[in-house]
């Protein structure tokens, strides 16, 4: 098990370092992340490398039994590099230079920057590639965080043109795929193509917009590979990761994770909808990260205090740090590194609090982390590597999410809201669920849900038909099959590529604006909830209706259908479902698919239930997110792993408390 912190010795006097290492060891910390923002300290001037301070810090930490994840410092190129090559700066879609003074201000596609990156990464790999204390590498920091991926500079225009030529080969192929005959946009050469930058009327060709998002994501993956190849060559025995952002969507993290040894996440529960933090959001980010490689992961930055740049977010109450840590472990984290060790006295993050306050004296958060670490050092070795044992999966399609960003079609609605509606159902129903890509095998799952799968990726419809035919259950919903993979509308009768699978024909449709709903009823006329966002008017060809519209001109027509396919079923939700409607419909779907919730424990809404299972083992986590104690009911005698005692019947879980049952 790895239990640690993010540590920045360059921020503190050297005489403090031994005390830091001693306090870490006393708190059970076994690993630090170090160096990811230290380029100007490592190379103050061109070619003048000063690694001695890092050597000394690693040696002091090693003396206390603490290992290190070493970060490549490429998220923060020094000022001297930017002054030499000002074309490295990113530009936004209005042509404004990102500027110096923050981080991630570089362009992924700048050849001058690539030279400097190769130099610093090579020198670091040569020095630390066989270092006893360095057990892994983190490449850069938080690709795709806070609008740092899509650049509109001249280098990106040239790179985009080449990317398009590699993809389409012939300019008339591109013209056809994009439909450039519209608005007289036909191109005669790839060199004519501009980036989809700001215009007075901000509506670009949808095919171009989607390809630019694909290109921008690929640029980040390619930039990571530039470093990955160096590390693999020079330091082949040390695993490599990158700290991703869960549900952020600028980069396709399935692609970004492809060549990494393991995925990592930065988790800040109080930063997610901070006005009213919702544990479902943190759980979703954790499950999404487990899905990137369909394996367990590390939390490379875990909230340990109140975050804050210019404004402070809520301070974790006593017990919340431990609670969040166990939530991460429950969803597949095999390592926890708190951000940060000590709250910095200067710079942009002086209000981003760590385990230690500004004065460096251990207090409540340090002590809570130490107690949590002591528990996890006992528990995690027993469950390390165990996944969720999920039999349901939600397909996450970055490209369909990008498509809906480009053309939302409805007011105040996004792909991620529809995605979250399904995830909320599984979370609230205590049914473990995996987040997978549409390239992943559906085998082994009883149910696969594809939210807003508007663009039909070639081959997916056929794969879903085979999956359903052999007993699987599929759920598709509004706008499914509307478009081709190039972001053009499909001229086939809706739902396009999925018509045979779903056994329906859509004859009309419309949007429902904010606050508008349509009543949905069951066969006996009993209400099941309301449709929101959208409505499809459905004609059943082979399918049967399981819910009907109960108002408006489509009253009495199907709102939700089920089609028998071989020994499985394919469902279609022809409207957005409010929470009551979602519960009613998905309960029917899950029952027919044979999905079972966690049954060992019954708990109120504020108590999250999660599971790690595999190889004949299973561990049930009960996590109280309420600030007051709650009662839970155990189906039978269960061993509680933290206290090492058997519990049965009714048990009381304290405010922000955690039980782990085996």
TrEMBL record:
Keyword vocabulary terms for this entry: Glycosidase, Hydrolase, Metal-binding, Zinc
Catalysis: reaction(s): Hydrolysis of terminal non-reducing beta-D-galactose residues in beta-D-galactosides
Enzyme Commission number, as recorded: 3.2.1.23
Beta-galactosidase C-terminal domain boundaries: 607-660
PANTHER family for the chain: BETA-GALACTOSIDASE GANA, BETA-GALACTOSIDASE YESZ
Cited InterPro entries: Beta_galactosidase_C, Beta_galactosidase_Trimer, Class_I_gatase-like, GH, Glyco_hydro_42, Glyco_hydro_42_N, Glyco_hydro_b
The keyword Cell inner membrane is annotated on this UniProt entry: no
Signal peptide: none
Protein known as: Beta-galactosidase
